[in-house]
């Protein structure tokens, strides 16, 4: 997803519980220069995982990087790893794979502790182009394999791309493969020739677009659902929404935390993005409360079945 000039600034205030404050003191770092090659600064918080259809475990909460480029991207990725994120999501079209790779390197973390995702852009659809695009991505990232590689959009020679990706899995270069922005019919078409079932379908889903058709379809399949821009990039006034604020007040949680907990309880992987360390930490602090069935129903009633990113349709 590309940046939109209408994107709303992150919430105006940050509610922090006493538990969260203690955690911040424990993991606080002085700046990006302090976490280069210093493993003891990595906060090993316990983020729940989901087992994908090939047996690989993937964190259920990760860090998105779209629009985080150059020095901001390097710093943000390094800080995200330092505060506990292990799932790092990027893509060729984001133009930041090199910055993400540098952030990983500066963090000093063992590569095997990370779950790194990138995506194939439509310009490189097809068997040969996919192989070359993959090699370019891992070179920019400075890694020798990817944990997850996705076809970013269902355009062009999807069949050729999927064949190439299956071969890269067999060669040990990719641990899992999947798709992004595929609807049920497009998934069925892919499955008509696929040897490997997609492990992930990364799509737009948020409280305003709850995917009433695709969500149950994926829940009944072997393909895990993942949400890009799980906080709707601040659009439609999400961070000042009174319904979400009222729910958050009950638990002393922010609107962002309520939304991310909602995704978690629906069984959807979420990859929120932020360049601010306090927000990175806040977004991780969703595992000490639980939304009630009533809360979940209230949020379900917010669905307007409308994309928040019409420029991408």
From TrEMBL:
Which Gene3D superfamilies does its entry note?
Answer: NADP-dependent oxidoreductase domain (3.20.20.100)
* Residues that bind substrate: 152
Pfam families in the record: Aldo_ket_red (PF00248)
Coiled coil stretches, renumbered:
none
Q: Does the keyword NADP apply?
A: yes
Q: Where is the NADP-dependent oxidoreductase domain?
A: 62-303
Q: Which SUPFAM superfamilies match?
A: NAD(P)-linked oxidoreductase (SSF51430)
Q: Point out the annotated site residues (description: Lowers pKa of active site Tyr).
A: 119
What protein family does this chain belong to? Belongs to the aldo/keto reductase family.
Indicate what this protein is called per its UniProt record: Aldo/keto reductase
């Amino acid at each position: 997803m590309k940046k939109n000039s209408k994107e709303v600034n992150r919430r105006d205030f940050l509610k922090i519980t006493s538990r969260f404050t203690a955690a911040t003191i424990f993991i606080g770092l002085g700046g990006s220069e302090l976490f280069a090659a210093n493993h003891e600064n990595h906060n090993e918080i316990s983020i729940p995982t989901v087992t994908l259809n090939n047996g690989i475990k993937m964190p259920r909460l990760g860090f998105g990087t779209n629009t985080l480029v150059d020095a901001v991207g390097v710093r943000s990725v390094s800080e995200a790893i330092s505060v506990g994120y292990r799932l790092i999501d990027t893509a060729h079209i984001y133009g930041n794979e090199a910055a993400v790779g540098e952030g990983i390197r500066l963090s000093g973390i063992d590569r095997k502790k990370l779950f790194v995702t990138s995506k194939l852009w439509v310009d490189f659809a097809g068997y040969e182009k996919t192989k070359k695009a993959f090699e370019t991505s891992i070179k920019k990232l400075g890694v020798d394999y990817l944990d997850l590689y996705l076809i970013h959009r269902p355009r062009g020679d999807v069949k050729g791309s999927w064949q190439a990706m299956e071969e890269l899995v067999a060669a040990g270069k990719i641990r899992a493969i999947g798709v992004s922005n595929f609807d049920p019919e497009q998934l069925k078409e892919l499955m008509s020739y696929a040897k490997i079932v997609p492990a992930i379908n990364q799509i737009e889903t948020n409280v305003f677009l709850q995917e009433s058709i695709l969500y149950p379809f994926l829940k009944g399949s072997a393909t895990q659902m993942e949400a890009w821009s799980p906080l709707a990039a601040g659009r439609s006034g999400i961070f000042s929404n009174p319904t979400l604020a009222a729910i958050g007040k009950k638990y002393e949680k922010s609107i962002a935390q309520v939304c991310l907990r909602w995704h978690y309880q629906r069984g959807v992987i979420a990859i929120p993005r932020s360049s601010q360390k306090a927000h990175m930490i806040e977004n991780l602090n969703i595992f000490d409360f639980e939304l009630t069935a009533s809360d979940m129903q209230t949020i379900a009633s917010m669905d307007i079945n409308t994309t928040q990113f019409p420029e991408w349709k």
